[in-house]
Design goal:
With 479 residues, the protein is mostly helical. The protein is built from 17 helices and 7 strands.
Length: 479
């Protein structure tokens, strides 16, 4: 499609000065209203001398705004009902401001009309401004930004429709969940039912395929030949670039999504996993994978549980052991003995009182030994267990085989033997095992890895690249 270049005209140029000029009468009229109120009080009576000049300036600027607004409307691209309402309200503001000036000049004849007329002018001004904003930004531009408490008070709270419900990017619908939000954020402001720039609406695939006053904007499977895509990659200075200069640009990731969608034939209802993917779009999609909510993380059981005993939690906290819920609204608990280095085998029985709720347990740096493993084996809902830097040697580590939900285990800095390590083969759901400075033989680690191929084994020993600044020596110079 050939891009049409406008030669411009005086009427178009003057009309587009409307957004610049329209704020002038707004400010002057508000000042005039304030002066009208103040002049009614004896001690402010002197400000009345300024009213005729202020009201005359307001009337003239309001009339000039009406003229430029009319010329701007000739450009087209606006929803007719909204446009007409805004136009007549603007004319009303010009008429009432002129009337206020005439009343001020003849206030001795109509003394009681001035204040009601000023109030009417403010109401018309507010309504005209609202409809002007609706023409520019859409009819819900104000209510969209309304805080939730105010929405409830005014009854304007709306249920979000078509919200993305996917938790895996592969299940996302390409148009509905990924492309439409881009069009909503970047394009709807100028291409909607209220504001029809170029006669183009983009709220649905049917409207996109219909195109605008210059023809279709989509050519299936040909992004580079589709106006919808071509205009997004024009230089910022180009008058046909979309979004226009001064508005947030489409990001490179969003461009890739739109290019892929058009290249795939602009489908509706198709999920990401159903479509062919290039290496570039796979990189983009990987970055769009939604974060897993806390209550859906792999280390938190999906089923609910009852609340723990306050008394039993208090018994642990008396030993400086921290007991907390894993998340807001959850009865599952995390127990951390980071401040309880003296926690020992004789204290382990206190954990059994929370065995239905305890899923994350950190006993690193405590005084426990292998005898504690028998109690740990009874905590069958454990998903995370940290035994770093304890005296555990691995005798009885097989007891953890009863912890069928165990996904994370940290044995760094322990002296667990190969036999104890290999007993972890019973924990089929184990995903992460940390064994830095644990003294295992490479053969034992390989054997465990073969038994649990999905297990991530972390043996530590990382070395960071040395920087020149790491070897700089500073000397104090006496002076």
């Amino acid at each position: 499609m050939r891009l049409l270049i406008s030669s411009g005209s005086w009427s178009m140029f003057i009309g587009r000065s409307h957004p610049l000029l329209v704020h002038l009468p707004i400010g002057i009229l508000i000042i005039a209203f304030i002066l009208t109120l103040l002049a009614r009080r004896e001690k402010w009576r002197h400000v009345q001398t300024a009213l005729p000049a202020v009201l005359l300036a307001a009337a003239l600027s309001a009339i000039l705004s009406c003229i430029t607004g009319y010329l701007l409307s000739l450009d087209g691209g606006y929803e007719e009902t909204l446009l007409q309402t805004h136009k007549y309200l603007g004319i009303g503001v010009a008429v009432i401001s002129t009337g206020l000036y005439l009343l001020e000049r003849n206030k001795h004849r109509f003394p009681r009309l001035q204040l009601p007329a000023a109030l009417l002018m403010v109401l018309l001004l507010g309504a005209a401004g609202h409809y002007g904003g609706s023409l520019t930004h859409g009819d819900d531009y104000l209510t969209q930004a309304m805080p939730a408490p105010l929405q409830r008070i005014t009854g304007m709270n709306k249920t979000v429709t078509n919200a993305a419900t996917y938790t895996n990017i592969g299940d996302a619908r390409l148009y509905e969940d990924l492309v439409r939000p881009v069009l909503t954020n970047r394009c709807y402001g100028c291409h909607n039912e209220q504001k029809l720039k170029g006669g183009l609406r983009l709220e649905s695939i049917a409207l996109i395929r219909k195109g605008g006053e210059h023809g279709p904007v989509l050519k299936d499977s040909l992004p580079e030949e589709s106006e919808l895509f071509k205009r997004l990659i024009l230089p910022e200075e180009d008058e046909h670039r979309m979004p226009p200069k001064g508005k947030p640009s489409v990001t490179p990731q969003e461009l890739e999504l739109l290019h892929w969608w058009i290249a795939e034939g602009a489908p509706a209802g198709k999920t990401v996993k159903e479509l062919e993917k290039t290496s570039r779009i796979m990189a983009v999609l990987e970055g769009m994978q939604p974060a897993t909510p806390l209550d859906k993380q792999e280390f938190v059981p999906e089923e609910n549980t009852g609340a723990a005993s306050e008394q039993k939690m208090a018994a642990l906290e008396a030993l400086k052991v921290k007991v907390m819920p894993v998340g807001a609204g959850s009865h599952y608990l995390t127990v951390d003995a980071i401040n309880a280095a003296g926690f020992s085998n004789r204290d382990m029985q206190l954990l059994l009182g929370l065995k239905e709720q305890l899923i994350w347990l950190d006993l690193s740096g405590t005084a426990i030994t292998d005898s504690a493993l028998a109690v740990l084996g009874q905590l069958k809902k454990l998903t995370r267990l940290d035994l770093r830097n304890t005296a555990i040697k691995g005798n009885g580590l097989k007891e953890l085989g009863n912890c069928r939900e165990l996904r994370y285990l940290n044995l760094a800095g322990t002296a667990v033997n190969a036999e104890g390590l290999l007993s972890l083969q019973q924990n089929k759901k184990l995903q992460q095992l940390y064994v830095y400075q644990a003294g295992f033989t490479p053969a034992a680690l390989r054997q465990l890895q073969q038994a649990l191929p999905k297990l991530k084994l972390d043996t530590g020993g990382y070395r960071l690249q040395q920087l020149a600044s790491d070897t700089v020596i500073y000397h104090k110079i006496s002076g």
